[in-house]
Amino acid sequence: MAKQTIKDKDKGKDKDVEMKDDSTSKSQDADKETTEPEPKRDPDLLTVDDIKDHVKHVEKGVQTKEPRFISRVIRALVSTRRRLNCNVLRRVISGFFPQASDLKDILLGFIEEPMEVESSVLPLRPKSVRSHPLLPELECFLHLLVLLYLIDGKKYSQAVVCSDLLMEKIVAQNRRTLDALAAKCYFYHSRAYELTGQLSKIRSFLHARLRRATLRHDDAGVSVLLNLLLRNYLHYNLFDQADKLVSKSTFPENGNNNEWARFLYYLGRIKATQLEYSEAHKNLLQAIRKAPTTNAAAGFKQSVHKLAITVELLLGDIPDRALFRQAMFRKTLMPYFQLTQGNLRSY
Fold this sequence. Notes:
Layout (H helix, E strand, L loop, with lengths): L1 H33 L8 H22 L2 H9 L1 H5 L4 H11 L5 H8 L26 H17 L3 H16 L7 H17 L7 H13 L3 H17 L3 H10 L8 H17 L3 H14 L7 H17 L7 H4 L8 H7 L7
Helix pairs in contact: 2-3, 2-5, 7-8, 7-9, 8-9, 9-11, 10-11, 11-12, 11-13, 13-14, 14-15
């Protein structure tokens, strides 16, 4: 009898353990249901949120006089411009600009109406400052986003008009916190005119802005404007004028590496045309070292290497074959590789 009671107790324990297992499995199922992935947000709303963060950085840069905040926004332009569309721009412009704003109506005129028109757009600024005008830096930043959208959409004639309005806004301002944004705006102003074949029309304007940036010790503006003028001269094969500009100008030592790479490449082209091959080769090698290491600068690197290989052959040297095996240059430099082997017909 004692043995049977012990067995019954053991059986009861087993049953209790089995019931605990059932309860834990139910709790695990409930946890799985609660940890289901959330639905994905609208990508346009995510882009608007990113632009809101950029606006906060610009405002913080103006208030603290720290250029690093605005520089962060400029570096993020590459990823932001890929996600721009008419819906995003209309939400941003309507949300940030005050209700009675002439610039708001002008910018909205460059953006086509979306297929689904929203009845109302929520404001993106706090209620206390909603009726106040935007900072000039914010106006230029939002204006630049519209210009990038027009250039990427191949609406070049509208981009020229938009960039002219942007330049009028920048010329009327005298704020050091606007220097970094203004330099980026100069670049895309020149790009809009280049895409329409009208680079010669803005040459005097670029010279005037270069003089002003030099007097104000605006290193960002000087480096960008000097490169834009060199590109302008080389576009029309005006090598003598480009050489005179280089001899009378000084590139800022603390300039951006990307601008340094462009300047050294243009300088290498000028020296190669003047048959100064040793100096040209040195400048081109420095441009390659200064260029970004990412694939975003693949086109620039290919152009520099093409000219560097040609100059190296004119010096009587043979380029390293390892260069032609790199995936980035294998296809574009194939004719130059055949040229190093003496195959002139294929080149």
